[in-house]
Amino acid sequence: MIAIIPLIILFVICFGMKSGIKVYECFVEGAKEGLMVCYKIFPYLLAMIVAVSVFRESKALDFIVLLLSKPVRLIGLPPELVPLVLVKPLSGSGALGIYMEILKNYGPDTYIGRVASIIMGSTETIFYTVTIYYGAIGIKKIRHTLWAAIMADLVAIIMAITLARGMF
Amino acid sequence: MINYIWFFILVIGIVVGILTGRADSISKIFTQASSNTVKLLIEITGSMCLWSGIMKVAQKSGLTDKIAIVLRPILKFLFKGEGRNEKALGFIIMNITANMMGISNAATPFGIKAMEEMQKYNNKKDTASNDMVLFLVLNAACIQFVPTTILSFRAACNSKNPGEIIIPAIITTTIAALIGIISCKLLEKNF
After folding, report:
1. ipTM of this model?
2. Which domain range does residue B129 map to?
3. Which end of chain B is more exposed for a tag (fewer CB within 10 A), N or C?
4. pTM beyond cutoff 0.80
């Protein structure tokens, strides 16, 4: 499992070499785009990290977590992840800010850090997708879109919890 | 929606903080959190660029097209209406492939094209068709082979093994996507 990242990189660059593209130039071009992504997400990260930090510092977060701890314990979700799960469907960059907060506070290699990572790596923000895609072609009645997406989201959360417990 | 959430998080945070006598630490946290964000961003920038570079190689070398070949029959089986149209299906395949490679910037334009193609054959122009709903749900729960952003964030926070979440994340999304597809097929008759 430790070798998974080097193996992915090895596979991709070998495949690139074999198909005759200029791997070095492609890499540099892509890395430049990565820089633009970081530049673009910064304001969103700042907005969310500041808001969540203030919320945490005021102890308001502790109160919400306490309030919701019974129902979320039913599915085994650590209460600390409630803010992430609530914001995730609404805003990808907002969720990223909260995710960062969680990693910093609880560490990436803890149970909480792992569940958060699996949740972040497995679902996209449905509200964003609905706004952009349906908005582009003028769809107003979205029928069962949200229900099906929320079902998938819930299953993803439950799976993340189960796997973080079972695999580590 | 996110407007209200951000607004309320901040207002509640500030008001509760002041009322419980933490005005001091609240003031400090504003500057602290801002400079922390900059530090974090600098730490993730390196691996974000690294992964963008690697994914660019994957894209240009035709690795992406290989995934598309595997996807075609599966998607053709799932889409029963407007999505079957050759042009629409082509865009759907490219969109899902880009999502799988974790290049969502590239996925969105293909997704919009796919929606436009499907809309041409849609009978009720203001109502989403079965295929459109399925396409959106597949976008919301899409398997991502290399969750590059998450890897960068974990690495920035000194994870001993940032990649350990890749396999559980793939399993999780596969099952979530299956449930999404089943929910679509079950619900579409009732809406």
Report:
1. 0.84
2. 29-187
3. N
4. yes
